[in-house]
Structure prediction request, 235 residues.
Amino acid sequence: MTTHPELPPCAARRNSAPPAHPTPGNICINVRKYLQISSAPQVLYEETNGDAIITTGVGQHQMFAAQWYPFKEPRRWVTSGGLGSMGFGLPSALGAAAAFDGKQGRESKIVWDIDGDGSFLMNCQELATAFIEKLNTKVLLLNNQHLGMVVQWEDRFYKANRAHTYLGKREAEWHDTKDEADIYPNFVLMAQSFGVPAERVIRVEDLRAAIRRANETPGPYLVEVGGAWPGDAAG
Ligand SMILES: Cc1ncc(C[n+]2csc(CCOP(=O)(O)OP(=O)(O)O)c2C)c(N)n1
Ligand SMILES: [Mg+2]
Prediction:
């Protein structure tokens, strides 16, 4: 396998044996200016000082979260492993936010759900709970427009035969058109319709500020991250 000359050192890393555990700083965030969504959890780590409680859905984003958010302490990682259940991320984040809301002597902790588009869609109605109960739950939505982990298996074992693993518009695939209007569904509008402030990040340079705005805004907040795909496989 050869390394594309335009790509940063991460491509070289991908061509060699992966490290036993990826380390902060060793990230591939700037491929042709588009975010590689796999690296977004590391920016979240930096912006939360590693102090957040992290929940996840099930899929590639869950692996990215495990790889790129180095936990400083035990009892910060709430995930559905083994026979993992998609849709787990948001409800469990609500529970954690309620348990650590800083009220009546309870500790105050920031809670981020690092979720996938497929997983998030399975329980997105819980945005209403977050809004009504004013829970301090943030969502980092890694939107690759696919059931990414299944796509990975389709590619590896089934000659890339797709079995309804693409979640976006058929007639206009965002990854081809590069027209943001083709990202489907519109998670920002969805969150806003529930009263939850939200924004979409496509460019590397916008991610950190978006995470900061979420951290500084009381109550729920959704940051949708769209970026480089395909080719954004797990490390
Ligand atoms: C309720 C449920 N249905 C199906 C699966 C099988 N499954 C595991 S990962 C995955 C795709 C997840 O897609 P997404 O949430 O978008 O995460 P990504 O892999 O794209 O990051 C599926 C369908 C599951 N784990 N749970
Ligand atoms: Mg996905």
About this structure: Residues 59, 116-118, 144, 146-148 surround magnesium ion (ligand 2) (CB under 6 Å). Confidence is low (pLDDT under 50) at residues 1-11, 22-33, 230-235. The first strand starts at residue 53 and ends at 56.
